[in-house]
């Protein structure tokens, strides 16, 4: 028996874990229920659960062995490390060779293309938002369940979140050292704890890399923008007779993005596909005429404002202003004529079709953010003896992004302009007098602002991990262990520039003529605080002093500090054998603490004498000093919160059958007991089985599990988030503040995850061929979710008085809708994963080289969301191409390798879909539209098919050049209409940047 003192420590740890499991409820859970765990294939180089694989054959992969194909589906993903063990949950593995062939500047983009990954966020998503907090965040989502239900690990270890939702930023990972990425498409809460409802994405680094390697890469789109480049280098060496291993890497990357083209129906840098798409929505009360309520339109024109100003009500309605403030008759689309009460004939509020589109703002959203990555990583491992080692790793990652959510700051006909305003032309003053009016309503895109709003989020991570791993002998058996402690911190700073203060803007545009002939702000309090009059009547240069007053240099700011501390211990071994083989066990315990603080600027949060930066944001009588929310957008608020977790798990592998005729079968069981400081105890479990049948190459697998996701820091303790939005209320577009707040009474989500699969792995009659098909069924109850602002408004209009209490819609300038999360909803996602691979030499055909074919597809049969709110119905998300879950998503590759040359052709396909499955499509004789079943003229949304091509040439043993062209045919994105002119595309499903060229060199010595 080796290391008796260490054995004593291990035995004490095991006894502690067992005692933990024996607490009330633990023993029954461990004995009667099983748990799902799906991480990565056992690997001696992988930390965490994979760190101590015993000698012998690796877990059997599917559909093809790793030797046969670089990218395979492996039947693994367990904390069990045992000879011959086959895990029932499928795992798709991307090798370093696969990642190299993708030639992406960020590994996130390569992984997000996998069909099972749906709803991931990247630098092309959320670019129209100032306050969502996820801008520039590269986070992965499985099954369309969202990043918060996908657990992303580094070497099997948790990583501090880059956002208060707890999701990680893949851009902060050390990417050059990644040797494999395992994507587990099944629930894994029983082994890894909270968040693994949709599955696990595990990044495995090369922990004992020796030598030096580097990569230099650059590229741009066919439009000459989004120029990008990266430089990565890694070095590793062994010292002290191979006992000390040191690995160091550094990375710098820049993707410059696609700048905003500004105003009008024009795409950036020659992109001619943008056509102001929108939904024209008639009021419900008018849908008894047999015509549909919704209609897709292009060239949508907001008739409540113009580029440089438009009178939107009263006898002067339709008067617009151009150069030097000169009035002219606004050109309404749809042959519209103003009715002088705010409406326009032949138009459906808030849109006409065509006409003067120069003031449109939808195309002005940044298509792709300007993003910079800086990552440094080191790992030191010291072998104490042949069986045990210590390790330490440190990671620094900074990701800074920059984008513009929209040009100007549109005011949709909600401004009051006095007829005595000195900036008005004499002809308008005379018209006011002739029509006996003293003021009128006015809308403007504020195109006179010299700069667009620009948002700069920066996330900086520091992460330190120390641990030990190895094996020992106890009771005549070898046991593998690994333990680690982590401290991680992530600082997020959001700086917003060229943002206006609402009350100062209103004071500045309300100008009067002084007795001495000068022009000043009307409000004496505003004048005392520095107000300078601003002329918004026509295309005139904005006074710099006025702009400095309404848009101070110190714009909206938010600083967040999030920390994560983890202590984890895992143990596995084979204590005894049955007639069918060794019985394997894995057990462990983990403690984790998550906490955060967030501080907003005083104008967003509320000015007070105790504000730490009140000198930079002096008190102003025009500003709300208590509630804050003074900015046009980006109103950040203070908050803080923390919770802790302690948990223990037990996993068993029980061989059940071993027969030459009937094959091999095993039963995999696991259970986990978790205590959250905020919501108490919760259980997760798994029960699964594999049967390698007696039929050549055929295996059957099945697993069912209960998985959990506890409410995260944001959901529990969220700082109030206030964003500007527009809702359709009684046929009129109403500008609102959408106020989102937290809820400390939330409970964990509980999911039931079932997978049934058939695998054909290289039968003798088809060497080199493998395939698998898996049916999945995921049901999540007590889902933490909130209704959208528009849903709340619609429910209020339908008579739900409880919802009505969360909004004010009849007070211009003070309208709001409060959005809060509750355990109301449920989700159910059902579908199939299909995967096939074939590799063969071409000599039999008289051709050189090797051919590798591979295809992965996910078919979503149904994705039902039930809000749980009275007056709503379950909605079907499968095939809704405005969302994240198309009916089909496919990725196929064909690779030819020969000596120094490699060529790869790839196809990406998203099937056609609908705008909403709740729409009733009709052109005439339509039923009366309802809130839950609106009618629509055409409910079809196109799919997309993209072809990519890449290749490499090996100049020498150490130097390889490569190239990649994505979206070779430069396929345009499909229009994604909304009920306002926001964005008009869906980057979650479609390529929005266009054809992209990249090339580079790799050096490996």
From TrEMBL:
Coiled coil: none
Domain TonB-dependent receptor plug, residue spans: 87-200
Xref: SUPFAM superfamilies: Porins
Keyword Phosphoprotein among UniProt keywords: no
Residue ranges of the region described as Disordered: 32-65
Transmembrane intervals: none
Source organism superkingdom: Bacteria
Entry keyword Signal: yes
Protein name, per record: TonB-dependent Receptor Plug Domain
Species of the source: Pseudoduganella namucuonensis
């Amino acid at each position: 028996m080796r290391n008796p003192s260490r054995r004593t420590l291990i035995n004490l740890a095991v006894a502690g874990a067992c005692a933990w499991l024996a607490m009330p409820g633990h023993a029954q859970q461990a004995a009667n229920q099983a748990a799902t765990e799906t991480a990565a294939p056992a690997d001696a180089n992988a930390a965490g659960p994979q760190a101590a694989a015993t000698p012998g054959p690796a877990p059997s992969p599917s559909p093809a062995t790793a030797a046969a194909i670089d990218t395979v589906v492996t039947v693994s993903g367990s904390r069990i490390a045992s000879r011959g063990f086959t895990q029932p949950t499928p795992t798709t593995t991307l090798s370093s060779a696969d990642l190299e062939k993708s030639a992406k500047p960020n590994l996130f983009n390569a992984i997000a293309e996998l069909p099972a990954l749906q709803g991931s966020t990247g630098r092309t998503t959320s670019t129209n938002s100032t306050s969502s907090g996820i801008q520039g965040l590269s986070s992965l989502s499985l099954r369309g369940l969202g990043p918060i239900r996908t657990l992303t690990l580094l070497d099997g270890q948790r990583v501090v979140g880059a956002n208060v939702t707890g999701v990680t930023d893949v851009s902060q990972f050390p990417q050059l050292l990644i040797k494999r990425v395992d994507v587990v498409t099944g629930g894994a809460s029983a082994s890894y704890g909270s968040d693994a409802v949709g599955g696990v994405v595990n990044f495995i680094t090369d922990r004992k890399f020796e030598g030096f390697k580097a990569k230099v890469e650059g590229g741009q789109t066919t439009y000459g923008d989004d120029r990008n480049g990266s430089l990565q280098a890694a070095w590793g060496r062994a010292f002290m007779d191979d006992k000390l291993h040191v690995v160091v890497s550094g990375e710098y990357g820049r993707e410059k993005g696609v700048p905003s083209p500004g105003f009008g129906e024009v795409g950036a840098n020659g992109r001619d596909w943008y056509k102001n798409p929108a939904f024209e929505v008639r009021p419900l009360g008018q849908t008894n005429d047999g015509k549909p309520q919704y209609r897709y339109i292009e060239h949508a024109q907001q008739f409540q404002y113009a580029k440089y100003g438009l009178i939107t009500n009263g006898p002067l309605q339709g008067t617009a202003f151009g150069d030097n403030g000169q009035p002219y008759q606004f050109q309404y689309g749809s042959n519209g004529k103003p009715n002088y009460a705010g409406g326009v004939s032949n138009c459906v509020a808030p849109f006409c079709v065509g006409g003067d589109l120069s003031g449109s703002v939808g195309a002005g959203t940044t298509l792709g953010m300007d993003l910079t990555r800086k990552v440094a990583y080191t790992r030191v491992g010291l072998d104490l003896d042949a069986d045990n080692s210590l390790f330490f790793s440190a990671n620094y990652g900074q990701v800074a992004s920059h984008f513009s959510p929209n040009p100007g700051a549109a005011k949709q006909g909600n401004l009051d302009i006095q007829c005595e305003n000195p900036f008005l032309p004499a002809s308008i003053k005379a018209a006011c007098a002739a029509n006996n009016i003293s003021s009128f309503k006015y809308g403007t895109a504020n195109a006179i602002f010299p700069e667009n709003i620009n948002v700069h989020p920066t996330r900086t991570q520091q992460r330190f991990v120390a641990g030990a791993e190895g094996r020992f002998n106890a009771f005549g058996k070898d046991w593998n262990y690994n333990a680690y402690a982590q401290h991680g911190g992530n600082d997020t700073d959001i700086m917003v520039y060229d943002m206006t203060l609402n009350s100062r803007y209103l004071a500045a545009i309300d100008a009067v003529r002084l007795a001495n002939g000068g022009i000043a702000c009307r409000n004496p309090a505003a004048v005392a605080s520095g107000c300078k009059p601003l002329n918004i009547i026509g295309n005139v240069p904005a006074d710099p002093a006025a702009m400095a007053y309404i848009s101070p240099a110190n714009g909206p700011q938010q600083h967040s500090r999030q920390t994560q501390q983890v202590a984890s211990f895992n143990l596995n071994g084979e204590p005894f054998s049955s007639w069918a083989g060794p019985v394997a066990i894995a057990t462990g315990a983990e403690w984790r603490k998550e906490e955060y603080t967030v501080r907003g600027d005083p104008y967003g949060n509320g000015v007070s004498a105790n504000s730490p930066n009140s000198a930079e944001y002096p008190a102003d009588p025009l500003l709300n000093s208590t509630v804050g929310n003074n900015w046009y957008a980006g109103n950040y608020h203070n908050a803080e919160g923390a919770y802790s977790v302690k948990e223990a798990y037990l996993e068993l592998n029980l061989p059940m059958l071993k027969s030459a005729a009937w094959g091999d079968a095993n039963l995999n069981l696991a259970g986990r007991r978790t205590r959250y400081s905020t919501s108490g105890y919760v259980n997760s479990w798994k029960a699964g089985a594999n049967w390698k049948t007696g039929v050549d190459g055929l295996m059957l697998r099945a697993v069912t599990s209960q998985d959990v996701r506890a409410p995260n820091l944001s959901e529990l303790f969220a700082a109030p988030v206030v964003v500007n939005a527009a809702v359709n209320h009684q046929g009129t577009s109403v500008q609102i503040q959408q106020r989102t707040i937290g809820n400390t009474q939330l409970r964990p989500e509980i999911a039931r995850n079932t997978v049934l699969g058939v695998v054909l792995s290289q039968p003798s009659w088809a060497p080199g061929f493998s395939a698998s098909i898996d049916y999945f069924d995921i049901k999540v109850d007590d889902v933490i979710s909130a209704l959208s602002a528009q849903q709340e408004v619609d429910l209020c209009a339908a008579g739900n008085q409880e919802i009505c209490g969360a909004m004010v819609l009849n007070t211009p300038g003070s309208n709001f809708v409060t959005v809060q999360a509750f355990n109301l909803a449920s989700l159910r996602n059902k579908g199939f994963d299909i995967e096939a691979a074939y590799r063969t030499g071409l000599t039999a055909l008289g051709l050189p080289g090797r051919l590798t074919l591979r295809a992965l597809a996910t078919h979503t049969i149904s994705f039902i969301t039930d809000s749980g709110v009275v007056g709503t119905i379950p909605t079907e998300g499968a095939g809704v191409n405005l969302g994240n879950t198309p009916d089909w998503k496919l990725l196929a590759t064909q690779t030819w390798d020969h000596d120094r040359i490699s060529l790869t052709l790839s196809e990406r396909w998203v099937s056609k879909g609908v705008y909403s499955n709740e729409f009733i499509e009709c052109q005439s004789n339509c039923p009366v539209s309802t809130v839950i079943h609106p009618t629509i003229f055409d409910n079809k949304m196109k799919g997309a098919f993209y072809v990519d091509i890449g290749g490499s040439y090996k100049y020498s043993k150490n130097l390889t050049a490569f190239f990649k062209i994505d979206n070779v045919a430069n396929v345009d994105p499909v229009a994604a209409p909304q009920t306002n002119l926001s964005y008009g595309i869906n980057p979650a499903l479609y390529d929005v940047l266009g054809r992209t060229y990249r090339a580079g060199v790799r050096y490996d010595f």
